[in-house]
Amino acid sequence: MKRSFKFASLLLAAFSIALLTACAGKESAKGEDDGIGRITLYSPETPDMSKELALKFEEMHGGKVDLQYAGTNVLVNRMLAERDNAQADLWYGGGGILPFEAAADKDIITSYIPESADKWEVVEDGIKVKHQDGKYVGVEVFVLGFAYNTELVSKEEAPKTWEDLVDAKWEGKIQFPNPAASGTATLMVLSYMMEHGEEKGWEFFDKLVENANSIPDSGSGPTKAASMGEAHVAIGFDFMAYEQKANGESVDFVVPEKTPILVNPVSLVKDGPNPEGGKKFIDFLLSKEAQQILADWYHIPINPDVESKTPLTIESVKPHAVDLDIDWVNENYDRIRNEWKDRYQ
């Protein structure tokens, strides 16, 4: 009898522990996802900033954000390879709208526009802020321009136009990212080709490559190099230079006379494993909380009610904007990138 009671007691204790463990597991799972689940985010944007956004989302909404970082074109190639078994739920950032336009044409992203952006026109103040079929929506505004080391280059000497970059005085003193890997550089090449034609475009890039001392894969790498004196001038986005400047580096930024001014978008990946979670994160990116994080990282937020640390505003940069022929981009995106690789790599 005692043996039976002891066995029953042990069995009851084991059952209780198992029940408590199961309940704790359910509570943990609920606490982890709050019904949202795991969200896989592909992004080439600054990893620390992206992590801050992910943590803020988890704090506000629950869930678990799996952030996967790589260069824009690397991520696009990954999504193409995963087309029949999508692994990502959403894709944020990539050097502006051009890779997103190409991705929409390749049918690897799908339509979703948050309620907060539903009434936006496709083009606002000359800037395309969302896809006409809803396949991406802008999160912030990027300006492509020139970072320069203020100890090596004076404000007066700094280049003011794209053509200034091919002056012989910059030989061995310029860095820009690799268009085969970076969305930033892809934008640089395609926008110049659109404005000047391919013949003049390739002549320009032949000279620019001669003036470069390095062409790294990272979109932010050249700006970091300029801030450390490894280059006099670098091609990159505005926020890259202002982040470095805020950290005490000797760097400043020039908005060229005419240059691409465009939104940096987010998009829902087609047939991703957790589309509802992806939509929730897209909603979050347009929220005041997320926009403030972007503003604190020196980005120009798309929400005009959020004040940024950057000295630039949408109003101040609009006069510098060049028109972008999106149809031309969709037709020539891969061909131009492949020709770049054949010519320079």
Helix count, DSSP H or I runs of 4 or more residues = 12
Content-based structural category: alpha/beta
Q: In the residues, how many domains can be counted?
A: 2
- The helical percent reads 40-55%
Looking at this structure, what is the CATH superfamily of the largest domain? Periplasmic binding protein-like II
Which spans have pLDDT < 50 for at least 5 consecutive residues? Answer: 1-33
Shape: globular
- The count of β-strands is 13
Please state the CA-atom Rg, rounded to the nearest Å.
Answer: 24 Å
CATH-defined architecture of the largest domain: 3-Layer(aba) Sandwich
Strand-residue proportion: 15-25%
Query: Overall pLDDT, averaged?
Result: 89
Describe this structure in words.
With 345 residues, this protein is of the alpha/beta class. It is 44% helix and 17% strand. It contains 12 helices and 13 strands. β5 (123-124) and β6 (127-128) form a beta hairpin.
SSE layout and pairings?
Layout: H1 2-33, E1 38-43, H2 47-61, E2 64-69, H3 72-81, E3 90-92, H4 98-105, E4 109-110, E5 123-124, E6 127-128, E7 137-149, E8 174-175, H5 183-196, H6 198-211, E9 212-214, H7 221-227, E10 233-237, H8 238-246, E11 251-254, E12 261-269, H9 275-285, H10 288-296, E13 300-301, H11 314-317, H12 326-344
Parallel strand pairs: 1-2, 1-3, 8-9, 8-10
Antiparallel strand pairs: 3-12, 4-12, 5-6, 7-10, 7-11, 7-12, 7-13
InterPro entries: Ferric-bd
Protein name: Iron(III) transport system substrate-binding protein
Keywords: Signal
